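Before relying on records like the one below, remember that each one covers exactly one chain. Contacts with other chains, cofactors or solvent are not represented anywhere in the record.
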Amino acid sequence: QVQLVESGGGLVQPGGSLRLSCAASGGINGIYAMAWYRQAPGKQRELVARIASGGSTNYADPVKGRFTISRDNAKNTVYLQMNSLKPEDTAVYYCNVAATYVYWGQGTQVTVSS
């Protein structure tokens, strides 16, 4: 059974940093992209960052220059390093893996508040 296990969320002050991790297990083959999405209360889920199997990346404009996505293909793990966090980054962050099927993690809460 495929599982995406996320970790690293929490409460942080504005300007702080967090690192999210998402490990995929259960025999996902042919992963061609991994991504992070987020959903704030009352808003639609939105793409934060995406990394293709070859390593190319793209970011949402609000996080460019502050967030970095990376992946370890051997471990089927994707990371999101979040720096200079702002209150508007507060959301539930979801891991997404695109292979033969699309898989979603359960979400991890990130709260940026003083």
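The mean pLDDT is 94.
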